[in-house]
Amino acid sequence: MSDMEETEGHPSPAVPHRVIGTPPPSPRLLGSTAVADGGDGDGAGEVAEAEGAEHIVGLPPDDPRVIAHAKRVERIVAACFTFAFIAGCGFIAAYVGLGVHSVDKTLRSNLALGTSLSLALVALGLGALLWVRHLMPNVEMVEERHELRSDTKDRQAFEEYFKEGAANSQFVKRPLVRRTLMLGTLPLLAIPVVLLRDLGPEPGTSLRHTVWSPGRRLLVYGTNQPITPAEFSAPGQSLTIVPEGFTDNPDALAKATVTLIKFRPGELNVPTTTDGDTLIGTMNWTVDNIVAYSRICTHVGCPVGLYEQTTHHLLCPCHQSTFDASTGATVIFGPAPRPLPQLPMTVDAQGYLVAKSDFTQPVGPSFWERG
Amino acid sequence: MSDNFDIPKALSGTGGWLDDRFHGARGFRVLMRKVFPDHWSFLLGEIALWSFVILLLTGTFLSLFFVPSMTEVTYHGSYVKLDGIRMSEAYQSTLNISFDVRGGLLMRQIHHWAADLFMAALIIHMLRVFFTGAYRKPREVNWLIGIGLFTLGLLEGLFGYSLPDDQLSGAGLRIFEGVLQGVPIVGTYLAFFLFGGPYPGDIVIPRLYILHVLLIPGLILALITAHLFIMVHQKHTQMPAKGNTEKNVTGQPFYPYFLAKGGAWFFFIFAALALLATFAQINPIWLYGPYSPVQISSASQPDFYMGILEGSLRVMPAWEWNFLGHTLSLSVLIPALLPFGLILTGAAFWPFFEQWATGDKSWHNINDRPRNAPIRTGIGMATVVFYGVLWAEGANDVLADFLQVPLYTITWIARVLVFVGPVLAFVITRRICLGLQRKDAETLLHGYETGIIRQLPNGEFIEVHKPVNEEGRAVLEAKKVPALMPPPGSEDANGVPAPTSRGVLGKARAAANRAFAETVVIEADGHGNGHGGDGHGPEIVVGEEEEAVGAPGSPAQLPSGDEDA
Predict the structure, then answer these.
(1) Domain extent at residue A158
(2) How many residue pairs from chains A and B have C-beta atoms closer than 8 A?
(3) What is the pTM of this model?
(4) Which of A11, B23, B99, B421 could covalently link to B385 via disulfide, CB atoms 3.0 to 4.6 Å apart?
(5) Residue-number span of the structural domain to which B491 is assigned
(6) For chain A, percent of residues with pLDDT exceeding 70
(7) Is 80 exceeded by the pLDDT of residue A127?
(8) Residues B484 and B553 in one domain
């Protein structure tokens, strides 16, 4: 019931228990002044001076309570700004005093610089906010909006002048001039596009080939050493392979990188697959239950970097295309449209793993000319 | 308090000098008195603006030290863990900015955080503008500029993210290249022209750099300028409130109020970014290592604003179409174009669609409350859910790990949700909006429930209601319902057939119009609140009695002098 007593007979500010929409700005100690503005004056008339219509809602500015409050706020604002000065000086001191050139020192410097900068900025913001909210009188202005549409007379005048100009220019009357002008500017408009032609070479057939060629050795990524089937004998193992002679060539590596996987006898079963007349997958390209697949995902080209031994799944960490390495890297989930191409592989005279040929199909993402 | 003072000579002299030459006194006075309405949601666009200012400041600093070059060097710098490693000059200079330039790490991290905040603020600002209908006539052009800014912001962020040439940004660039290759007919050419040959080449970073520091920020700056000029010229919208009309704008003047508040807001935003940069590490490229096309790290995530593209790529099944020796890579094309295409094109056309459907050609300076436009709010929420599902799917591996749910299950849930979610969101939001409208109508009619039960002289118990005060009434009564168009087949006084009469399009328009015009109306004498004996019992209103007497829906009045029940 006490709730009831409070609400009755006190229209504001206790009455609205629930506020709909934006609450009106809370009444301030300094009082509110409403100012009616005559408008922004882009009409013909003078800027109307209607500022006489002020009325103060709160306490008068010379009320001792108001003066005391303002004095207190003034001191707080000044303290904020002084603090900002100190923090700002602290930033400069930290810049001069704290060196970098190692991780620890950098982190220390970052902490000191960042903290002092943040404090200076917070203090400035807080000071400004208190200033505007507690020291400036609460002026509210009402501005009239003017119709954005020009009045009909102006529109007509514009239209007439435009017509007159068009007539004087003879643009309408002389189609020969008009049309040849348009003709003349056409190539100029095309030139910015034409100039872009030399941004790069034509793709040609380069997306169909990699640097793998018959007899090129498979090198282990990182050590750049060739490898024999005997050295790679633990089933479940996988290695990242780069082509001999191109270990530092990002353009070559972006297409030619290969994943090498060793299986237990009987687990690897690459079905013989053809694309038209081209052989694209076969057990004949494996050596000792070791198979080589392109490491470049057929979706958008991320390296298919994750291999799970137990399920023989190759997973691309970018978009989770999943390939079954035991059956020719066929797609079992995800957005990749095709299996990872298999690299034809054999051993050379020294017993090292080498390519039998280039991939027999384009590696990496699909492209329009791929077919 | 001495409020009268003379303007210092230096200031008045300079002002006079300038006015002699530019005739600015009147124009600037008008500008100084420009009224800024007060509402928290009007600060969202400002966050984007100030973030952009901070991006320009920190970006200029970074460009003094960054070397946009893909030339390979061997690193021997302060970060000893990478000593002797071959890397691009771009990556090396980013390491140097981080570890050898005082304040460099701070500026780098502020820059990155500011970019994220810029995009986040843009998105939330656009949502605010959409849900309140602030894009309506006369502000359609500013809405379109906003969509342009968002698109440019995406590109600007993507390119900037790619510049340091670390492992993570390289993966992003690789995906970008793969998507480019998927474009029909010209895809391979686009990729080869951008990268100057086969991926990755040695020229893409200098090219992205000049786009990132000159072309795109220039365009963004131009569009922001246009956006602000149009806003000043057309004046702000305002929220429905007492005294606010379509023909006025109420608030505080630019000078000195908004100047001080805006300044404070700038300092606060800068401070928040500085705090984040100090205590929340972002993009620690030294941990990722230099880019190599051979390597990849798991759980690679782009910045959040690219998450929807990433999620779209992940959610897509492996569709591809081979015909006549060509390949149409649908599993790349659809995710790359469809989600953003739908959202941005849809957003661009929405104001015009709404005008077409409602037939409303008048200007709107008072914002709608979202509940009062159920179709718009429903479509907005459907879009939010569509975006949200794809965005979350962009982190499906992280989600799977976090929730301990199989990865493929997450993807399948997303595949279903991306279709079902928006529909559900639309239906539920529309119902909620209509429900809230009903509540508003009842509040207008009966006032608030006070929870106070009183016994009438005849023994009946009733609940005391309190009428809505003037402020509340102004808000509740601001609801505007689009007019129902004349039915198909009808003609107006001049014999012109109704716009809904023409063919299939006319039928569609009639249907859209009916949907937009749907509203909740409560008859003043129809529904009780269920507290009376028969559901139509006397409604008791207390409080401001004079006002309550005339208010609708107060058929009975509590006798005065009976205050204490």
Answers:
(1) 154-187
(2) 347
(3) 0.87
(4) B421
(5) 441-557
(6) 84
(7) yes
(8) yes
